[in-house]
Specification:
Layout lengths: L10 H9 L14 H5 L1 E4 L2 E4 L10 H16 L6 E6 L5 H12 L4 E7 L2 H14 L5 E5 L12 E6 L14 H4 L15 H9 L4 E10 L6 H4 L6 E7 L5 E8 L5
Parallel strand pairs: 3-4, 3-6, 4-5, 6-7
Antiparallel strand pairs: 1-2, 7-9, 8-9
Length: 256
């Protein structure tokens, strides 16, 4: 049997291995992401626990948190106590970071974080315990907003749901499709299947001034994000590569 050649670790990977106590020479050759080797992924300067049950948070999603915080800053006085729902929390990176940023700016708030995966939600619970600000947080196993209490009204619903069109998954690196959970990647035929479901559910869980913030695929058009269950004002924001990547939806009339 031919012995495989040693894996060539990038400088970033070598730093991760050294920082979190793993020796590259004892790790088998594979294309497994280094974050799963170390069990840590950095997001907004914090070390989040990750497992194969959770997507590895991307740096682009840090911009989603920034947009949400800036939107809150321009819309709510700091005296107002905010209620936030994060849907599809994964390892909890968005919720934890959002909580820290809101506390730093003086907003009292409470969080409800949900995920359809009990394993992912367990990881999020650990990360909130290790890293989060002291805001009250409730963890809910839920398919989108399906089991969120009907009387819970939020100022913000934020989600980074699976948004990659199914046909494009085959073109992704094996380090992604071979290790990261397919449930957290596959957004259906056009990538917006779960997004549309959330948009349809959201009005019943939003306060009058509430809004939904989403990370989306760069191929999504406004029509892909709309449903026939209520009207929305829709704003699209570009990422650092000038691609449409984030959406803000504000209901303009109550859900029927």
């Amino acid at each position: 049997m031919v012995k495989p050649s040693p894996r060539q670790w990038t400088p970033y990977e070598q730093t991760q291995l050294a920082r979190y106590g793993r020796r590259p020479e004892v790790i088998v050759t594979a294309d497994i992401p280094v974050e799963y080797v170390t069990g840590i992924a950095e997001f907004a300067g914090r070390p989040f626990l990750v497992t194969p049950a959770t997507l590895i948070p991307r740096i682009e999603t840090e911009q989603l948190v920034e947009l949400v915080v800036n939107d809150i800053s321009s819309s709510y006085p700091t005296a107002e106590r905010l209620s936030i729902i994060e849907v599809g929390t994964g390892c909890g990176a968005i919720g934890v970071t959002l909580s820290w940023e809101l506390r730093r700016r003086g907003w009292a708030h409470r969080l409800v974080v949900s995920d359809v995966s009990t394993k992912a939600l367990a990881v999020a619970r650990l990360n909130f315990g290790r890293l989060a600000a002291t805001a009250p947080v409730t963890f809910v196993v839920s398919d989108l907003l399906g089991t969120i209490k009907a009387d819970l009204q939020a100022d913000v619903i934020v989600a980074n749901l699976p948004y990659i069109p199914t046909a494009r998954l085959a073109s992704l690196s094996s380090s992604v499709t071979g290790y990261e959970p397919a449930q957290a990647l596959d957004g259906g035929s056009d990538g917006a299947r779960l997004i549309r479901r959330l948009v349809a559910q959201a009005p019943s869980h939003l306060k009058p001034k509430g809004r939904v913030w989403l990370e989306i695929d760069h191929t999504h058009r406004p029509a892909d994000l709309r449903t026939n269950r209520g009207d929305y004002q829709l704003d699209i924001f570009e990422d650092s590569a000038n691609l449409p990547r984030f959406a803000r939806l504000q209901p303009t009339r109550p859900r029927c």
